[in-house]
């Protein structure tokens, strides 16, 4: 069904693809277009900062897990029955509490199986997308969800239920990044505007550290890394956080920064954005994102999409998980800040470089 839909898209959008109007194809791999399990659905009563639930209890995934457990020599292992419900906190569950099930042999086996299914899903769909858009001047991309709540506790419960097997000693995002390398795909991450200080203490959130980890994982694997904001913001603090994440060590006067975002998606176009000072501040933000430089006509267009490389064994992908390396350093603040609205009345919007 994915392949049929994408083939139809290519056919119906041919003139835009040929003209270079569409240069980026973000492939939806789960809820909200994100590569994750639907572990925290508000439609089912989930409320922030609930840990969510593992989504694997249908008969097909249950049979798959039982077969995998039997192959590993443990036919007696069942899917977790101690991981709580959508709105639990980690310490209320046997699975996520200190020294809980997630640290046992059985728990580690389950989490590997659960997260590997997600990686294989993304790999399979991206291979179909690559075949459909082969030769088009586009880049494939996926979006990873910014699950920043419970990041500060050892169990990372909300990330685990979503399928991101990320712990203090295991990198659950670099494995995804490594899978993407075979498809010439970029990685798009969210919550780029968030500051730790803006989050509630009870949620143990750390969006800044999470962004730093995920972007570093993508850069280490040689990917183009992009970002977007999670919530609608029109203030200088949010814009300056995005600018810091776009160029973590600021402007390099001798050439491009060693690490920088490949692209940024601003959410979202609305009447509120276009009102008075909000739009003036946004214009300044766009200019700063392009380092106050005008359009460079020498920048090459997107190259024709090449065929995906041969399938990568899951064992090779999982080698990216450990050891978990320290993220690249990020400055505390951007070196090209957007000033408060009182100082931006004469700013001009320039073309992207």
From TrEMBL:
InterPro entries: GH, Glyco_hydro_14, Glyco_hydro_14_CS, Glyco_hydro_14B_pln. It comes from the Eukaryota. The keyword Hydrolase applies. Keywords: Carbohydrate metabolism, Glycosidase, Hydrolase, Polysaccharide degradation. The keyword Ribonucleoprotein does not apply. Signal peptide: none annotated. It catalyses: Hydrolysis of (1->4)-alpha-D-glucosidic linkages in polysaccharides so as to remove successive maltose units from the non-reducing ends of the chains. One of its GO terms (molecular function) is beta-amylase activity. Gene3D superfamilies: Glycosidases. GO terms for biological process: polysaccharide catabolic process. SUPFAM superfamilies: (Trans)glycosidases. Belongs to the glycosyl hydrolase 14 family. This is Beta-amylase.
